[in-house]
Structure formats: structure tokens, C-alpha cells
Batch of 2 targets.
Target 1
Amino acid sequence: MDRFVYLDNSATTKVSERVFEAMVPYLTEHYGNPSSIYGIGREAHAAIDEAREKVAKAINAKSREIYFTGCGTESDNWAIKGAARHLAKKGKKHIITSVFEHHAVLHTCQSLEKEGFEVTYLTVDSEGYVSPSDVENAIREDTALVTIMYANNEIGTIQPIAEIGKICRDKKVLFHTDAVQAIGNVRIDVQAENIDMLSLSGHKIHAPKGVGALYVRQGVVIDNFMDGGAQENNKRGGTENLASIVGLGAAMEEAHNGLEEKAAKLTILRDKLIDNLLKIPHTRLNGGRENRLCTNVNISFEGIEGEGLLLLLDLNGIAGSSGSACTSGSLDPSHVLLAIGLEHGIAHGSLRLSLGRYNTEEDVDYALQVIPQVVERLRAMSPVWQEMKEQGLV
Amino acid sequence: MDRFVYLDNSATTKVSERVFEAMVPYLTEHYGNPSSIYGIGREAHAAIDEAREKVAKAINAKSREIYFTGCGTESDNWAIKGAARHLAKKGKKHIITSVFEHHAVLHTCQSLEKEGFEVTYLTVDSEGYVSPSDVENAIREDTALVTIMYANNEIGTIQPIAEIGKICRDKKVLFHTDAVQAIGNVRIDVQAENIDMLSLSGHKIHAPKGVGALYVRQGVVIDNFMDGGAQENNKRGGTENLASIVGLGAAMEEAHNGLEEKAAKLTILRDKLIDNLLKIPHTRLNGGRENRLCTNVNISFEGIEGEGLLLLLDLNGIAGSSGSACTSGSLDPSHVLLAIGLEHGIAHGSLRLSLGRYNTEEDVDYALQVIPQVVERLRAMSPVWQEMKEQGLV
Amino acid sequence: MMYSAKVMEHFASPHNVGEMPDANGVGEVGNQKCGDIMKMYIKVENNVIVDVKFLTFGCGAAIATSSMATDLIKGQPLSEALKLTNKAVVEALDGLPAVKLHCSVLAEQAIKAAIADYYRRQGIDPTPIVGEIEDCEACHCH
Ligand SMILES: Cc1ncc(COP(=O)(O)O)c(C=O)c1O
Ligand SMILES: Cc1ncc(COP(=O)(O)O)c(C=O)c1O
Ligand code: FES
Ligand code: FES
């Protein structure tokens, strides 16, 4: 099996050639510490400034509103813990989020609960959207922060961020959004959408793993998360992840040049995948079709279990992911699929395919050739499917 | 000016060729997410496991005791905040550290003070050593943690870690050491030295900036710092910094093979620098000579100011620092030099030269040719020096 | 998480898959909530398992353990088949990741359940012979 079709771009992406080339000098000759005052130190500093400009520009922020971090998870931890702990001093100890956030947000909120914060977890509808009026109704006198993801990582639904931003701004409550999945796929404007803080991560947009950024609107004050040296304007200690930051800058620039064309192309591929996979009987699309990332396909196949599906796809050279618990070794299937109302059984049999810049129509055609066969094979050995058959359901 | 002599290896180091080559595949073709179950995901996972083995082996730890982080600063934050917050639940809210720790430790302790912890900052003697009996005397019923750096980043003094480790173990108090500067220069054995937690950082040992590790002895429980996914055995969320972790593994292996030979070679270079720089009149060595990193030279020149010195050295192609990289460019003189009793004036006129694997005797000879001239030039234009002259002191 | 070559072999080409219309013992364990359901069919003649088939809804490890377990009991007397432990199945597969050990527990239980069903059909109380078969609620595989 020589063919390799990567359809897991929401898990991580390949570093682009341009990004790699931008990084190499900083992994070789230009190794100065950005805090040092001699030549290679100043150069390193300038390279970081340039990357900061690029990140800022892509989301319509100012350069000094961008802070580099070690990953998307750190950005989420910092934004949420930093805001919560800061505002707790003013008696604000309530946080609003949704039940289907990424674990970087959910587990952060849970750890804040142990610190004495109260968290409201908004439910989402069966299509996978948070309702702005739910946000509005949940806001209290003591609400410190609303944190709602820009787009869901499993089912790709794009949330009504501008509306939520407007509500929060009107009610004078801080608004953070985890845009890790949206960045590069949706054009984001932090000013127009009234976003106070935004998390992003390099490895979802063809920069390396292990670098992220947090946008914090000028005037918003949050506690530091990483105490240390004077880097990042005294707000985030630690010698800067130089090469990866340069890579992130290059990746943001690349992602935002021609974003619309890329999205249009991917939407066509995505729809071809969805339409054809739905032809397999007893199959459902998870997440609404309207406001959906151009990259995301999430389908449940009744009667089969996701890990087996992934392994068989792997044997056929296709990389995808699943909301099955078995993949993660836990008993519970994806909290996202349960949140939109799926039963355990069917949640276990879900497949996420996520497209990226380098996918072609041939990739999609190949996947559409392999997947129905694989599903059929697994169903043939599934007691659940046999039972459905006996009951005349299929 | 073509010559370039890098004598700031305590600020950061050049990525070694072997490390770079080990990283490249993970920045190009092997881009899988280590949590994914298909081929390139499993490969990535295996690469991280291998790096973990290498890091563990270098300090005589077990592989499962090593957690990868985003930098040395994160390791320090996690160890100290994680232990403090965990033990606070058992009523232990006292921390012992020293006045001359790195800011990653000091600022972390200060932020814990705001959370209600009490911190004892031990003074150090004029040679730059913490006294084990001071540690012993400071331990109380409610002491959660002792954190003392392995070797000081500015003056290179190696602390009596094994003795402090023994005291802490006997008193059943957790012991953390920031070994960011010691790693690769001193052979460390976490078991023999009774170290419970140890921080290290890649970019001081020829791995890239923006990756670190924390050793946590098996059985020691601390709170998580970075909440998120199930990575790092559920203890540190965030997609792993794949390429840099692989680089860190390779760098640890490289640093620990032949450590003694490298140290012997560097000690000779270091002593040549120290002996010859001390021939310049009104000059002092900061930090004791006995237990001193083989890489560290820290000299104060009366009557001059460090930044001018650095800039002139830079013009001559020599990279050095005047205190830690993080503090250069700030107005306050180094807290480390003040801690060993230097006056503000002389603290300002200090120069740190730090050797690394790639330095040669020619580098040292060149530095010894340039520095005396530069010092003389600055003294000639210094009113302080002129006054000393008028008073017949020089 | 990584599967051994043996696990992948049994997963990719499982042995003894399918239904068995003329089985004289059928056992089913697990539930969809646990993410794993195994159905085991046996044909017993003269106290020997002459044929065995399985259906499994579950992960790669579940499918591989089903396949291996059926191989191990095929042609064996019932008394031997009852001695099969999940540990033996795991060993035969060159090990399983720790998080997957529960899937092998299920294979052992599915066999017991099928044998119990066989005895029941013969009018014999299986409990003294087979013992209790734990269901998922009681499972301590996690
Ligand atoms: C002693 C010491 N601790 C911690 C750090 C912080 O490490 P990093 O820059 O990787 O965050 C440094 C270096 O900057 C250091 O010298
Ligand atoms: C929505 C979302 N938030 C946060 C993260 C975490 O980012 P990182 O892996 O860089 O920590 C991810 C991806 O893993 C994600 O999809
Ligand atoms: S069936 Fe879910 S882990 Fe094996
Ligand atoms: S086998 Fe179902 S929970 Fe263990």
C-alpha cells in the first residue's frame, strides 16, 4: 500500500515548505537569544517582531496585542485562568462556556471550579450550535468571562461569534474564543467581532506543533500564567520559541493570503465527501451543514465502532480520526457527539475526515472508494448490525 | 569585522547539527499527531517515547518520570505551583527558595505569595552558595517545598544539591531543583541526590528554544499546570512539540556522552579566561572558583558599565552578557550580583562569558586580546574611573 | 498506543468471523455504552468445540482478541476452553496496550457465556461449571 491520503488536518497539519524554509535559519545560524543585545540577538528579536506583525495582521489586531505561547492549550489556559483569577479580585467568580469546548477549555474550567469559581456550561442544539440568547441569559452580575469556541474541532460547526461578542461587549463581560480550528479557514476580525481574547495554535495551519499565540485586546488586563523573565512584554516568561514563532508568522501569512479561494475549493471537496458518504445506508452527518468549516466531515455509521474503522482505513493508507472512546482508551465516546444528542452506540461509530490545503480531488475519490467497502466489512462482523438486520431495520 | 566568537552559551546555544538532523523529519514528512492511531501518528508517538528514554537516562530517572514542557520556565512554574497548590490542600503553605534563583522561580514564588503562600528567601554567601544548614533551619511543619537551583545562571556556582536533597528527604519535604544551567555540564543523578523534581531546558544544551522537561519522581503528586488533553500521561495537555522534543532527546544524549571530557576541556578554557582577565587591575571574579560550572566566567570591572562593554565587544564580534539575558536591557543591576554583596556600581560593570561545546582556544585568545582594550577604552571615558584615579586609588 | 504485529494481523484478517445458524451455544457480552459487544457462537459435539464463530462490535483489540480466542478454543474440549484466561489471549497476541485489557476480558467472558448457553440448552445448570459471568456494570477492567 503506497498511497497515503491524509484526512486528519484538524488533528495536525504538515509543516508547509515555506514555513520550514523560514524556520531553518533560526534552527541553524541565527540562534541568538532574542533578549541579547548583540547582533544575532537583535536579529532574533526582529524576527519575532515580524512574526507578531503577521499574526496580528491576519486577525486585524495590533502587533502589541499578540503574545506567543507554547501551544493552543497554553493560550486557553492563560486566557481563562488569567482572566478568572484577575477578576476574582473584583468579586467576579462566574464563567460561562459550553459543554462541547475542547478539553483545553473544559479541563481549565473544571480546575477553576476547584479553585472556587462557578462555571455555567451551556448546552448546544442538535446541530452543534451555541445560542447567543443562552449566553445573554446566563450572564450575571458576577460573570467574569464568556469563553466559546470559534469552530468546533470535531463537528466543524462555526459558532455565532460576532453575536456573542456583541452581547458580551454590551454587558461589559470579557469574551474569549478558542479559534484554534477556525484560524486559516475563516476570516476573523477581532475588532468587528468584539473579541477580547483569542487563542490560536500553529500546528493546525501548517506551522509546527508546540507554538501558539494569544491575542489580548489592548486595555484588557489578565493575570500572568507563566511567571519568569521579561519576555513578551513582561507577560509571559520563557526564552522565546524562536524558530517556531517565525514559522507561525509565516504560516499565518500563508493561510490568510487567498483564504477565500482555498475555502471555496475545500468546500467543494467537503461536500463531495459528505454527499457520497451519506449514500451509505444508516449514516448521519454530525453538525449542521450551513455554518460549517470548509474542512470538516463528521459522519456516524450505525453498527460499527470507530477504532476498527480507523485501523482499516490506515491499512488502506487513509488517515482520519474518530469520536470513539476506544481510540483514546477511555470508555466514554466523544463529549462533543454526546452533546449534540448522539447515543453512545452511534457516537462510537463516527468518523471525522478533515481536509487541508494539500488535499486534492483524487484524495477524496480514493476515500470514497475505500470507505464504503470498509464500512461494509465491519458491519458484516458486527453483532449490532446483524441484530438490526434480524429486526428488519436494514 | 568577520570574526564571530560566541561566549554567551548560558543565554542560549546553537542547535547542534545532529539535533537539527534529528528534527528535520518531524518538521517535514513525519508530521503525525502523536495521539493519532494511524502510521505517522504512531511513529510520532514512538519518537517521543524514545526522546523520553534519552532524557531519563541522562539523569538516571525512569522514562515515565519525564514530562515534556514548552520551556524551562514552564517546568519551573509547573513544579513549584503544582507542588504548592497540591500541598496547600494539606495545610502546607510554606516554600523555601533562595534570593538568587532565576526569575522563572522567583517570580513564580512571588505570585504564590499573592495566592497566600509564605516564602522564605534564603540568602547566599559572598561566594554565591546556599548553605544546607540554612535550608535545614528554615524547614517548618508546614513547608511544602524547597526549590534551590542546581547551578546559578549568572555566576555559575554549583549548589550543594546532594546535601540539600538529603535534608529534604529526611525531613519529608519535596525538593525541586532548577537544573537548566547544570544539565550537560554536570553529571546529575536524581536518585543519588534525592531530587524529587528537576527542571531542564533544551536551548541551553544545543536543542532549540521553546522546549523543556520536568522530572517528577514516581510517587510525587503535584497539581497539573496546563489543563487540556490526555497528553503526557494526562498531566500536561497540548499537542506535543514533536520536532523539538526529538531534538531535546538527541541533545541530552549528545550532552551526556563524553560530558567529562567536554567539561575538562572547558575548564581549561574557563581558567585561562579567568586568570587573564583578573590581570586587568580593579577587577573581581564573581562566584566561587571551586564548585563552578566549567562554562562560566563572571568578572566585574570597576569604573565601567556593562552595556557599553557588551556593545563594544559586539562591535568586535564577541557575544557576551552582563547578567542573565533576560535582564540585559533593564535598568536594575542583576539581583544575583547584589545577592553576593556587590555594590550597585560594580554590579553594573560585570561581564558574563559563558563557554560552550563549540568554543576553541582561539576564541579565548581572541577574547583575551579584545577585552582588556575595550575595558581600558571605557575606563578612559568614565568619570568614576577618573575620580578613582584622582583619589589615587588606581 | 500501539498494537503488536500479531494484533494487527488478527485484526486485519480475523479468523472465525461470522454467524453460525446451527450453533448450539451462543453468548453475548458487553454493551454499546462500554463500546464493545461480543457475540460468540459455538458448535459442541461430544463435549468438544468443533466449530466457533464470532461477531464483534468494538475496537481493533476487541476484534483481534475475539479472533485469537476463537482460534485457541477451536477443537478443544469444553473443560479446556473454560480454562482460557484473558491473560493467555493477551499473551498469544504478544500483548495489548494497558488501556485495551478490558477488551480481552470480554473475549474470555463471551466464551463462558456461550458455553453456559450450551449447558443450559442441554438442561444442565451452567453456574457450578462456568461460574458467574460478570456484566459490564460489574466489570472492573477500568
Ligand atoms: C537557571 C535558569 N532557569 C530557567 C531558565 C528558563 O528557561 P527557558 O528560557 O527555557 O524558559 C533559564 C534560562 O533562561 C535559566 O538559566
Ligand atoms: C479547538 C481546539 N482548541 C485547542 C486545541 C489545543 O491546541 P494545542 O494542541 O496546540 O495545544 C486544539 C487542538 O488540539 C483544538 O482543536
Ligand atoms: S472495544 Fe473499546 S477499547 Fe476495545
Ligand atoms: S468490558 Fe465493558 S466495561 Fe469492561
Target 2
Amino acid sequence: MNGTKIRLLILLLIFGLFCLSCGRGGAGAGKDQHTVTIAGSTSVMPFTEKLAEYFMLENPDYIVEVQGGGSTAGVQACMNYTVDIGMSSRHLKDNEKALTDVTICNDGIAIVVNPGNPLDTLTIEQIRGIFNGRIKNWKDLGWIDREIDAVSREEGSGTRGSFEDLIMNKLEIDDGIMVQDSNGSVKEVIATDPYAIGYISLGLLDGRVKGLAVNGVSPTMENIKSGDYEIVRPFLYLTNGEPDECARTFIDFVLSMEGQTILQKEGLIDIL
Amino acid sequence: MAFNKEKFIKYILTVFALSSLFFLFLIFAFILIEGLPLFLKVGFKNIIFGFKWAPTKGSFGIFPMIVSSFLVTFGALIVGGPLGLSCAVYLAEYSGKRMKMLLKPALELLAGIPSVVYGFLGVIYIVPLVRNYLGGSGFSLISTSVILGVMILPTIISISFDAIMSVPRTYREGSLAMGATKWQTIYKVVIPSARSGIMAGFILGMGRAIGETMAVIMIAGNALKIPTSLLDPLRTLTGNIALELAYATGDHRLGLFSTGVVLLVIIMALNYIANFGIKKKRLK
Amino acid sequence: MDVKIRLENLKASYNEQEVLKGITIDVYKNMITGFMGPSGSGKSTIISILNRMMEFEDGIRIEGKILFDGFDLTKTISSVELRKRVGTVFAVPIPLPRSIYENIAYGPRLNRINDREKLDQIVINSLKNAFLWDEVKDRLNTSALKLSGGQQQRLCLARTLALHPEIILLDEPCSGLDPISTAKIEDALSELKKDYTIILVSNNTKQIARISDYSAFFYMGELIEYGNTEDLFTNPRIKKTDDYISGKFG
Amino acid sequence: MRIKPGITDKMARIGFNSMAFFTVGILVVIISIICIKGVSHVNLEFIFTSPEDMGRHGGIFPSIMGTVLLALLSIVFATPLGLGTAIFLTEYTKESTFTKIIRFGVESLAGIPSIIYGLFGFIFFVIKLGMGWSLLSGVLTMTIMILPTIIRTSEEAIKAVPRNLRIVSYSLGATRWETVTKIVLTAATPGILTGIMLSVGRVVGETAAVIFTMGSSLRLPTSLMDSGRTMAVHFYILAREGISMEKAYATALILVLSITIINILAYYIMNKVVSKYS
């Protein structure tokens, strides 16, 4: 009696597995579903997820799968065809130029502190000093006598890459600086630690952290569009050669008025 | 026919049994295949004793992380060791049967709580506490040690408990008969006889602490320098892998696998020392 | 009288220590043959050689011939097949942790008998033959572990009978039982010998004297004396046997 | 001045008592924090709807399903392998160098930390075998990770089955395999179930090894090649990225609740076994 029950269970499980593994292939063949896989920069990922949500609402026969991995991984995945579209939050390096890139929008990098921090502006020189480890105390910047808890991103991150290019000017980020592995986690640290400073994608700026003016220019959309705020990097979609039909449809959607409006609402700088 | 069937079954089961070995081999092989070339390319010394980790610029030193890993591990032992041992003593010597029935599953539950939950609670409660009362950012050696100390409690308790329980009743009776108090008996007779088992528990606890990842990257701050005070942030070997693996390509990824090789070697060494302790105890 | 089992110069050693030193004996069909002797005499070893349970022991070595109905089955029949023809009842009753019914059906089910009616018939007959039917007929589906020791042992006997073996080996089956249970088993055995060849190993010389047709006395791995039970008990040819059955040692 | 032994004895008793209750206190505090902060955000809608806006709104249904699928499939793969190994070690061989080597392998697997499993799964299943971040990569990695637990608990359970039962079975003409399936496994089932339960608990709580093999796609996986997210991973991302603390606590509550239930179930089954044989 027990034996048959167990056998039945196993049979059911195998059957379920079978269904599961065929599920997509079978359904896809019948209903003509298209899948677009996208991977890469974790900075671009949340916005792409948002775009994908809207896109799939309008195009129910499409499935857009979005993964993180980081800019460099996005480039790699794109090069060996594991994904249809790669995402990058930095310019392509010389050895990556074989890929086709589309700028879907621009993103400012905001230097952020806790809302409780009275400072409103820093010079590029000061920011460089903080992350280089020369300036260690808020006292030196005109605030209280308290160590600065600076937070950076990890090696390989596109945001860090852009930050190094745009701010650090070949100086190294000091080893004593804390490291978090995403915009969100940097923001979390800044939001909870009154003495912290870090840098995140402008699109993620909200009431929980305060964006500092750099050299007196605030990180606002107008200032970026006018070119006054200079810490800006592009968000790129990468394809290996010409994108295929499905990928094309999605990229077109992103570049369309609708897609750009979505991005703009998220705090990014549209390219219209 | 029956004869053949039995042979067939035995053959299948042998293959199953060998699968564990096969997986172990695969894991070692792939971690080594990915991790060793960099050792040869950059030099063993430059990785193990290098101070600079800048994998995109060709520096792969993980010495600070090795030191940091051991620091949090010892920190965790300082927090969790005495607490765990006392719990084990309480369970084995003081608690009644019903209490034991209640406490043992509770402690197992402590082991079952996912490490991300520990990390999360650490960030929300321990980190601000340290920041406000001790200074620094709170993402620090001490916060990490406290959280890891709690996380290794179940390991230390259950293995120490087994070790204490395996001390023969006659030892205790002998000591008590000679007029020793219960505490004197525990302190002078029970704990010394259970020593190697308790040590094994501590070492396995160390293994758990050194291998812990998610909680650590959430609380440790992940700075690359060797911490110089309890309040400094630090990055462990596991943290290094988890932080950067998703992003890494080329030599950078190989560097993370080298980190994995070092971690694997340390863990294996700890496990064998611990197992040796447990086996020695059993032989006695 | 047909010879059912013939042992020829059977030797066995256990970790280099000789426990059977060349046993030669004929066991007759449809008889109860009693094996007696003090512990260490080798009688239980013979049992585990006959049912090949010694395969589960380490370091045992066997020489000599074992003939069933004149045939040496060592090479021709697998242990599993052999055990279906040679049933065993052990010293301690060991019911399987399932119902009375399923305990007895266990063997037949191994032989792919799954037909309910057939199984019912086998269970009923086996229980009746083991003199247990009347006591359990109303609770066949209760756990066998709930039976008393004596009932459990008869259950074990019934379980063996369900296989319809040719030979039944009983390894001190009454050692832990009260006199009433023992009597019931003895009654059952006396009935059963019509259809089976039975070997009864016992330390209890009185039991051997009571129910066995032939008796063998073993001592230190040797067969000291073998013969018709009446002759052996009334007129032992060897002094050692006399000493044993009169209780001077053992 | 020497303190009287009677006093130190009393102090020791009080000390050990308070240490033990402190430890239990930690557990109570952890669980109550999660319950208090999470309970107001958990409702049927939270359990049965998909997340919106990266989890800021909506529920966690896909991650619940992801967890269930990952755990279930890992068990489906690991149980035959683990149980087979345990049966081999206990029933089909005698202690020898060979079994020692296998045991060494199992012990070593048990000691490997989850991040190494993640690293291995990532390089082997995700990259080398080209499975990508997928349910399948996750399942295979988890299978290897829980294998030692299943082997060890099954072996203990099988060893606890009295030898006599096997002897009887053999004497009734059962083959080794018949004895194993009909006698040994039936008697050892509760112990084996305990091991399976503990393994499920481990998979449910695992993050590091899952995130690098199964990925973190928010969608409900519909095939083995789909990426997906378990509750633990979802919780990690919610908490770490500061997406939504309410949702994070609510997810943590469901996570901890399910692990608690699994653990209690495992403990309950195990106790039944212990009382059965002692």
C-alpha cells in the first residue's frame, strides 16, 4: 500500500518536472511567444525592469527577462551571445568596441550624504580627497569633529568606473573606504549613518539621502541637460551586431516617447 | 535472474555512493582550475601576502582579507564560545528533562534562521548601536563578531553538549563522592574530560564563522584595509567573493577563485582538525 | 527411511579458530532430530551453515559436503532460494513491526503471491498449524508486537510454515518461554513432522528426549554420539553423553 | 579570603542558568522582532500576488514558488542519491578503506561553506555547462549541498533499525534488496524524513549559493531553464537595496515561519523515532 503511494508520488513528480521543462517550449510554440533576455549593469537593471513591466503589458506575447551581473558581465554575456541585450553603465572600452551600443538615456552620479548632514556642496577636489583617504574628518570640511564614513562601490562596478573617471582623476580610492555592492546598498548605508558619504545613480535619489552640489552645481535634471553638472555617464544597451527582431522591438520601445517618459519619471535624463 | 538483479542494484548503489566523491572532486577541480592559474601567473606570495587588492589593475593581494577572516572568526569565538559552552553545560548538567526537550529544538531553530536574516537584523540593530555608543560607522569588526558569535552558537552548543554527555557518569559520581560540589565537578572533572570534543565544537564553529557570507557582507563594511581597531570595517574572504563575483570577468574572476582556493584550504584544514578531535575522543 | 540432509566431514573455522571439526551425520526425512550440547559445541553453527545465514558473519571458512536429498546445492542454488526451502525459527521471537497477518504474508509475498484469497488461506493454515489460530483469529490486523512472548514465537513458526519449506530449523526456540508456551510449540512440532523435516537445537535435554525421534550430542565442535533418541537416552555408548544427559555438566 | 565552595557552586548554577536563558532570549528577540514588524504586512494578497516595482508593492508569490520549486526539485534529486549512498554504506558493504574514502568525501562536502558551492555552481553549471542562471543550475548546486545531510541522517536512521529484523527477513528468503526496501526502509522512514526536512530548511534559508546559480529574476520560473528568486534572495535584495522595509520584514516573517515549521516537524518526527527504539 505504502509502496504504491510512493510510486505514484514519484510518477507525479516526474510528470510535473516534465511539464515544467516543456512548459515554455510547448506554450511558446503554440502562442508564438518571444523572449528577450537582458543582463548587465545593476544600475541599469531596475530601470530596465520597469521598462520591461510596461513593455510586457503592451505586448503580452513578449517575455523580457532582466538579470543583473554588472556592466562588465553584461558586455561579456553579450559578446558570447548568452543574452540578447547587454546593459552597461559606462562607456565601452577599446577592446569592447566590437559591440553595437545604443545610449538609452544618461544618468548623473550624485554625491550623497545623510539628510542630517548640514553640508550642501563640496568641490571635486574635496570629494577626491575624501575617497582618496586624505580627508578623513568632517571637521576639515567645516562640520563637526567626526570621522567620515565614506562608502564606495566594488571593483568592476560601472558606477565606480564612471566615478573614478569623472572624479578621481587617476587617484586611487583608498583601501580604508567601505564598499557596498549596489546603488541600493550604498544608499541604505547613507540613509542610516549620519556621517556617511557615497555616490549613487541620480535616478535613485529620493528623500532618504541628500544629493550634494558639486562645485556649486546641484545634481538636477536641468543642470545635467544644460551640461553644468558634469558627473554624468550614459546607460547603454549593447547588442552583438544588429539586434534581432525581438530585441529590436524592445529597444525601439525604450527609445520611443513612451519609454523615454518612463525613464524620465524615474529621474534619468532622457535623450529626446 | 534474481542474482543478476542484486548485482545490478549493488552496482547502481556503488555509483550513487561514488557520486559524493565525484562531486567533491568536481568542486575541487573547478575551483582549482579557475583559481590556480593566477597563483602561477602573479605569484603565490603576491596573492597570499599581497596587501593590495585592485584586480582590474593587476593587484591580487588578499592578505588583509585572510587576516580579517581570522579576526572576525576569533571575535565570533570570543562572543559565542563562552556563551555556547555555558549553554551546553547547562543543558547537560543542570536542566531538567522537560527543559531539555524545550531548549534543544529552540537552539536548532537558531541554527535554522537564514544568515540573511541575521545580517539584516545586524544592520538594523547592532550597527546603529555600535555607531551611536562606540563610534565609527558601525559597520565594523565588533558588529560582525557579535552577529557571527550568535550564528555559531548552535554548532558550539550541540557538539560541546555531546562531548559533555559522553563523559562517563562514574567520573562525576567519583568526584561528588569525594565531597566536591557540582561546580567543582564540572570545572575540574567534566570539562577537562570533554576537552577534545569541546575543542572540536569550537573549531567547527570557527569553520562556520569563516565560511559565513551573506551576513558578513551586510555588516562588515567591506573595506580593503586590515582593521586597526574594533570599530574599523573589514572585508573577509567570503565577502570578497560574494561582492565581486557577479561583476568579475577575466583575471578579476580568476582572482576571486584564488580567494576561493584559499578559503577552501583554510576550511578543510579546520574541519580535519575538528574531526580529528572528535575521533580521538571516540577512540578513548 | 530417507535421508534428507547428509553432512560429510563438515569443518568450519571462525577467524582461524576451528568450531566444527569434521561432522558427518544423516538427518532423516519427516523426523524431529534433536541437536544438543553445551554452548560452544557447534550445534548452532551447523544451523547457520544449513540456512547459509553464516554469510552475514565475517571471517568464517567452511569445508566439507552438505547434501540435500543427495545433492550438493552449494553451487546450484542461491542462498535466497535455499532459504525458501530451509526455514528457521530463532531463539528470540522477532516479529516484524507490522500486523500479525502481514508478518505471515511476508514470505509468500516475496514469492509474488499477492492474491488476497490465496494469502488468506496461507495465513489461516499457517496459524492453525502453529497452534496460534484460535488466539489471534479476531485480531489479525493488530501489531504483532502486541502478542505475548510465547505467541510471538508461534507466530515466527507460522511465518516459517507459510513458506512451505522442506526443512525447519529451530535454534533453541523455547529458551525464553514459559512451560505452557513451550508445550504448545512442542505439540505443534509433533504434528508438523508429518510434512516437514525438523531439526531442533536445544540445551534442554528433557525437551529433546520428549519430542525428538533422533538425537545428536555435540561437544567442542565434534559429534560425540548420534542415534535413536530412546537408545541414546537410555543407553548412551559414550560416557561424555551420559554425563551430559544426566546433568553432570552443560 | 577564600570564597566558600557552596557559594561558588550557587553562583555557577545561577550563571549557567542565566547564560542559557540569555541564549534562548536571543532567539525569542529575533523571532519577536520579525513577527511584530512583519505581521501587519502579511496577508493573503501578499502571499498570492506578484511583486510590482521591484518588490516595493505587491506580494511575493513568485519567490514563494521559486523556493518551493528549488527545494522540491533538490530533494527529488538528492534523496535517491543520498539514500542510495546510505544504503550502500550500511547494507551493501562492510567497513573498508573504500567506505572510509566515501565517508571522507561526505564529511568534506558537509564542511564546504555555501559560498564555495555558489562559486562552483556558477563556474560549472552556469558558465561551463551553459545552463545560465536558471532553476536547473540552482537545483543541481543545492542537490550537492544537501547531499551530505541526507546521507548522514539516512545512515543513522538505517543503522538504528535492529539487525534482527534483517536476519528474519533473510531467513524467510528475502534478497538483500527486498530486505532493504521492505524492512529497513520502512522502519527508517521517519529518520530519513527528518533528514529531508532539515535539507529543505537548508535550501529555503540559503542565499549565497542560490543567488549565483539561480540568479534573481523576479518572474515566476516556468521552465527549468528560467531564472528565479527564492524568498531568502528576495528578502536579501529587499533589505539590502532598501527597497521596502515593510515588505522585507513581511518576507522575513514568512521565511522564518516556514523554516520554524519545517524544523519543528523534523524534530517531532525524529523524537518519534527515538522513542520507538529506546
